[in-house]
What does this fold into?
Amino acid sequence: MVVSRNFCIMAVQCWSDILKTSKKTALICDGKRKIHYLFTDGSEMAEEYDMNTDALVSRRLRSKNNLGGQGQWRTEVGETSHNAMPSVDSDTISENSSNPLFARKDTKSSFRWRVRNISYPMDTYNVSVETAERCCIIRTTNKKYYKKFSIPDLDRCQLPLESSALSYTHANNTLIISYKKPKEILALEQELMRELRKLKGTNDGDVDCKTQ
It folds into this structure.
């Protein structure tokens, strides 16, 4: 499916407007800028940024459940405490429950994922973009590991996935997958960071908590 550039720009602006109009609470503590977003539909997002580099450290989201209460937090960026024990419904196939740990940790220019504790040779891996399914898939020729994952940032902005933006390498028992951020995402992130910096003790409900 071909998506027009004008449509993508409108979608990016829509997500930008949602972020701007959300109720935001800022906490500056332990060298991190912690932002809590409350959206008009009752869903929430919590982010942490490194104060020195402005790099995104973690992002978690949760939505209202069917009964109107708050659902469970799900981690989109950063480590999760339960990665070591995949559930029965996990889409990760491994030799034992202590094997591969999948987590996202971005850089300023790329979305990046790491699969730790995976020691197969480089030519074992095949990482591809599936444009029709709007996801990326990790496969191994020995059929010991399989992972399908999306890029929510692109989904929220209705941006297409490009195979040319994807690359991967393997070192120190870790598979590292990178997806170059499109210019629309880079512009959105820069605009958002300018807004977040203004939250430091200036907006209603903001808290500036500096460690002693």
About this structure: Helices lie at 5-21, 152-156, 183-198. The domain at 5-78+89-198 is CATH 2.60.40.790 (Immunoglobulin-like). Residues 26 and 35 are 5 Å apart (CA to CA).
